[in-house]
Design a protein that fits this description.
With about 325 residues, the protein is α/β, with parallel strands linked by helices. It contains 11 helices and 9 strands. The protein has helices at about 5-10, 40-45, 60-75, 85-105, 150-170, 190-200, 200-205, 230-245, 260-265, 285-290, 315-330; strands at about 15-20, 105-115, 115-125, 130-140, 175-185, 210-215, 225, 250, 270-275.
């Protein structure tokens, strides 16, 4: 999760070019139909309630953690971080892309320049589904320069990756089209996601019926926070957590500070999950969720100690499963 926009905006200057990879499809430029109704993907699906829970597969937390181990190894081998414009970021992107390519996704790398360094977004489309109704899940892949960024945001990136691989492994054939994304330069002011949204045509923006964002979902002293942007998407996540008996709160700490913001500004329905950053867990929250009152949700936020040791497995497991539940429910 980035620092406040005002503290970063002056550093951001984007000069963009698109590099087409694999099959050469342009990210966001899905084929016709052009005439669509723009609305939340959750509107119909959310009304299905807990019955949809069984349809969504369990995301093995061991698989998600294996991706985190790889991201940690990449950071360790590349100056201790995976930051924008650094070798560790490109190696992280290459790791994710190789997994998706092997699983049968159509992948596209989108290239841009920010702060004098080249950045990359990775977009992965699952073949099939109505390309006039796109359900999209994403996370930022970059870290800050001070550390490996395993909770922020290896956790979101690894969970989105494993959800995508589960789509392939199970042979899921959704009614809607599925797209997954890993954003660059989020920590510099949402640069990658903003570039993606700004370079979509109005018609292609209208085809995105929902964007789901996952930024920090394994905080070591976790809370369970749900974005309150699109009401139907919010309800989908709340239904999942209610089904497993975990109370949630509305997410406020990172409001507007992650990659859902450019989508929301463009009129796309958005939602997402968050387990907390530098804010302090209250006594009431500790009673509700466990953990330590008076301590930050993530004491290693934007620090060198944000390593694989800085992840709560229970929170990571619950949020990864909630991610899958939302993707399956909203795309059915």
């Amino acid at each position: 999760m980035k620092l406040s926009v005002s503290g970063r905006a002056s550093a951001v200057a984007v000069v963009a070019a698109v590099t087409l990879v694999a099959t050469g499809s342009i990210a966001g430029a899905a084929p016709a139909p052009e005439t669509v109704t723009h609305g939340s993907a959750a509107t119909a699906a959310a009304s299905r309630g807990p019955a949809a829970l069984a349809a969504a597969p369990d995301i093995p937390v061991a698989n998600v953690k294996a991706h985190l181990t790889q991201l940690q190894s990449i950071a360790t081998a590349n100056g201790g971080n995976r930051a924008h414009g650094r070798a560790g970021y490109k190696a992280s992107l290459d790791y994710v892309k190789a997994k998706l390519d092997a699983a049968g996704f159509t992948t596209t790398i989108q290239q841009f320049t920010s702060s004098g360094r080249t950045g990359y977004n990775l977009i992965a489309d699952w073949p099939g589904g109505d390309t006039g109704q796109v359900v999209m899940a994403g996370s930022h892949l970059d870290s800050v320069t001070s550390g490996a960024g395993i909770n922020d945001n290896g956790t979101g990136s690894a969970a989105v990756l494993e959800a995508a691989l589960t789509v392939a492994r199970t042979g899921y054939q959704p009614t809607k089209h599925l797209r997954f994304a890993w954003w660059g330069a989020e920590e510099l002011g949402l640069v990658g996601s903003r570039y993606y949204v700004n370079n979509l045509s109005a018609a292609n923006r209208a085809k995105i019926s929902g964007y789901l964002n996952f930024d920090m979902i394994g905080s070591p002293n976790p809370g369970y926070f749900v974005y309150d942007d699109d009401a139907a998407i919010e309800k989908t996540f709340k239904d999942y957590f209610a089904g497993i008996g975990v109370p949630t709160e509305i997410e406020t700490e990172g409001d507007g500070r992650s990659d859902h913001a450019p989508f929301k500004s463009a009129g796309v329905p958005v939602g997402g999950l968050f387990s907390g950053a530098s804010r302090t867990k209250t006594a009431a929250q500790a009673t509700k969720w466990g953990g330590t009152a008076g301590q930050a949700f993530d004491r290693c936020y934007h620090s060198s100690c944000d390593t694989t040791a800085n992840v709560n497995d229970t929170a990571l497991n619950r949020n990864a499963d909630a991610l899958a539940y939302a993707v399956w429910t909203l795309s059915a």
